[in-house]
Amino acid sequence: MTLAEQYVAFMTIVRKEIKRYLRIWTQTLLPSAITMSLYFVIFGTLIGSRIGEMGGFTYMQFVVPGLIMMAIVTNSYSNVVSSFFGSKFNNSVEELLVSPTPNYVILLGYVVGGISRGILVAVVVTVVSLFFTHLHIHSYFVVVVIVLMTSTLFALAGFINAVYANNFDDISIIPTFVLTPLIYLGGVFYSMDLLPDFWAGVSRLNPLVYVVNAFRYGVLGVSDVSLPLAFGMIGMFTVLAFAFSMHLLNSGTRLRQ
Amino acid sequence: MARFIQARVFRETMIPALRIENLSKVYGNGFAALKGINLEVQQGDFFALLGPNGAGKSTTIGIICSLVAKTAGKVSVFDVDIDRDFAAAKKYIGIVPQEFNFNQFEQARDIVINQAGYYGLPRELAAQRAEKYLKALGIWDKRDVPSRMMSGGMKRRLMIARALVHEPKLLILDEPTAGVDIEMRRSMWDFLKKINAEGTTIILTTHYLEEAEALCRHIAIINKGEIVENSSIKSLLRRLKRETFVLDTVEEAPECVEIEGFVVRRTDSNTLEVEVEKGQYINQVFDELDRHGIHISSMRNRANRLEEMFVNLVEGAG
Fold first, then answer.
1. ipTM of this predicted complex?
2. Backbone phi, psi, residue B42, to 5°
3. Banded model confidence at residue A89, pLDDT cuts 50, 70, 90
4. Is A58 helix (H, G, I), strand (E, B) or coil?
5. pLDDT for the residue numbered A144
6. Partners of A173 in the beta sheet?
7. Cβ neighbours of residue B172 closer than 8 Å, sequence gap 6 or more
8. Do A1 and B120 touch (CB under 8 A)?
9. Is B180 helix (H, G, I), strand (E, B) or coil?
10. In chain B, which among 90-109 make CB contacts under 8 A with chain A?
11. Given an 8 Å threshold on Cβ–Cβ distance, is B99 in contact with A91?
C-alpha cells in the first residue's frame, strides 16, 4: 500500500472508532461525567472542606488533576479493549485482516480512537470541574504531552487485553482488579508525603503514580515524583506496550489460526 | 512495439489467477487439514471447490486470504507470492466468508465504505462504489438500516457487495447461498455469472452441487486434506457411469416392471425409478414402457448428476 492509501485506511479506522463511541455516548461519555461530578461533590466539596490544604492547594484543586487523569486512563483503555474485543467476538476483525492494511496502521487506528475518547472525556470532566473550582494551567506543554503519552499507553494496554480476551469477563477483569486499585493507590486523592517511608517506596512501583503526578505538575506545578523520571517511565512503558502489540499482530496471536 | 505489447498481454493472461503448490496445514492439535495440495485456477474461470465438511475447503480459503497461517507450501495470486508481498496479493482478492463477519450494529453502507477504506480507496470513490454494488445486489434501499435488521439473504448480498467494493480480480465465495431462498439464490447466480462474464475470476465452495453444475466450468474435489479430483465439469460428468431417472407415470404403474438390461423400481403408484448405465439409451426404456401400456408424463434425475459423481469420488477415496 502506498502511504496515501495507508492514511486512508488509518482514517477509516479512526472515523469508525469515533462514530462507535459517539453512537453509544450514554455508555461511553456520560458515565465518566456523572462519576467525576460525584467525586467532586463528595471528596472535593463535602469531605475536602474539612481536610484543608494539600500540597499547598485546596483539596478540591489537588484532586482535580488526578480525577481528570483517571478519566483519561479508564476511557482510553476501555475504548480499545471493548472495541477490538467486540470486533474479534463478531469476527468483523476479519474485515481488516483480509485487507492489505498494514498491522501498524491497524494498531495506530485503534489507539488513536482510544486517545480521542480519553481526551474528549477529559475535556468533559475538566468542564464539570470548573463548576466546583478554578484551574490555572502551570505548563500547557507538560499537560498536552502527558495526556497524549498516558492515553497512548493505556490504549495500547487495552489492545493487549483485547487480543488475549476470550470472553466479556476477560475484558473487565483487568480494569476492575488491576487498573482501578492502581489508580486509587496512585496518589489521586493524597500526597505521597502522607505515607510512611516504606509505603511511599512501594507506591513508587505503581506506574499510575508517575502518570498522576506528572499531570498534577502540569496543572498545579507540584509533583511527588521527578518529572523526567515520570516521562521516562511512561515513555518506556509505551514503547514496550507498542512493541508487544505489534508482536501480537504480526504473529497473529489469537487472531489468525 | 505492437508485437511487444501483444506478447506482454498474452503473458499476463497466461498467469493463473491462483496457484497453490504443496500446501499443507497442520493445526496446533496435530490435525492435518491439508496434506500438500496443488491447485491452479485460470483467469476468468468459474471454479468450484467442493468437499464434505471438514475436508479442508475453508482452511484453503483461510490461507489464501491470510486468516489461517500455512504450515508449508506456496500460494500465488496473479503471480504474487503471498510470502513475498501479501499486501499486493490481497488487493487482487475479494472474500465472502461462510459466516456473517461484520458488525451487526453498523449500517450496510458504512460496512461497505469502511471496507473500501481498508483497501485505501478515498472516501468519495468508496461511497460511489458502495452505491454501485449495493444497487447491483438489490439492497440499496436498506443502506441506512443496521445490518442486524436485514434478512439472511440480504446479509449474504451485503457481504458480496463488501467483497467487491475494491473491484478484485479474484472473488472467493465460501458457501454464498447457504440458507438463502430459491428466488434469491437464482438472482445471486445471475449476478455472479454477470461479473464472471465481465472478467472476474470466481472460486466457489458450495454444498449445493446443482449450484456448482449451473455456474462453474472447472471443479476440484477435496477430501481429508487431499485433492481427489480436478477437472472440467464436462469431463467429470462424462465419466459418470450410471444415472438414475425418476419417471412419473400417467396410469398407475404395475407392481413389477421388468425391462431387460435395466434396473427398474416402483417407488409409489405413479412413480418408477430407472438406472441407466453408461452406453445404454433411455429410449429403450420408453419403448419398453410404451409396449407395456405405461405412459410417462414427466422425467427427472433422481439426484443432481454432479452429486452422484461427488458421492462416488468421496466415498471411493474414503
1. 0.90
2. -80, 155
3. very high
4. strand
5. 95
6. none
7. B61, B64, B65, B93, B94, B95, B96, B202, B203, B204
8. yes
9. coil
10. 90-91, 93, 95, 97, 99-105
11. yes
Residues 91-120 of A with CB under 8 A from B: 91-92, 94-102
Q: Give the angle A151-A157-A160 at the CA atoms, nearest 5°.
A: 145
Instruction: Judge: A9–B86 Cβ closer than 8 Å, yes or no.
Output: no
Return the residue in A6, A8, A97, A106 with the most chain B beta carbons within 10 A, the one to mutate for interface testing.
A8
Burial of A250 (0-12, 13-18, 19+ CB in 10 A): exposed
> Which three cell numbers, joined as nine digits, stand for B316?
471411493
Q: Using CA atoms, how far apart are residues A58 and A49, in angstroms rounded to an integer?
A: 8
- Which of A91, A98, A256 faces B95 most closely, judged by CB atoms? A98
Query: Mind listing the pLDDT tens digit for each residue in B106-119?
Result: 999 999 999 999 99
For residues B283 and B298, what is the distance between their CA atoms, to the nearest angstrom? 14
What class has domain B2-237? alpha beta
Q: Do A256 and B66 touch (CB under 8 A)?
A: yes
Residue that has been written with the C-alpha cell 496457484 in this structure: B19
Indicate yes or no: CB of B115 within 8 angstroms of CB of A99: yes
CB A238 within 8 A of CB A160: no
pLDDT at B318: 47
Angle at B294 between CA B289 and CA B295, to 5 degrees: 100
CB–CB of B103 and A87 under 8 A?
yes
CA distance A153 to A161: 12
Minimal Cβ distance to A257: which of B67, B110, B118: B67
Percent with pLDDT over 90 in chain B: 51
Overall average pLDDT of the B231-235 stretch: 84
At B8 the pLDDT is: 60
B chain contacts of residue A97, beta-carbon cutoff 8 Å: 66-67
CATH fold of B240-317 = Alpha-Beta Plaits (3.30.70)
Per the CB < 8 A criterion, the answer to whether B201 and B45 are in contact is yes
Question: Does A100 sit within 8 Å of B65, measured CB to CB?
Answer: no
Nearest to B105 by CA among A164, A92, A162, A246: A92
The grid coordinates of residue B287 equal 419403448
Tell me the pLDDT tens digit for each residue of A117-176. Answer: 999 999 999 999 898 888 889 999 999 999 999 999 999 999 999 999 998 889 888 888
The residue of chain B nearest to residue A91, with distances taken between CA atoms, is B101
Task: Confirm if B191 and B137 have CB atoms less than 8 A apart.
Answer: yes
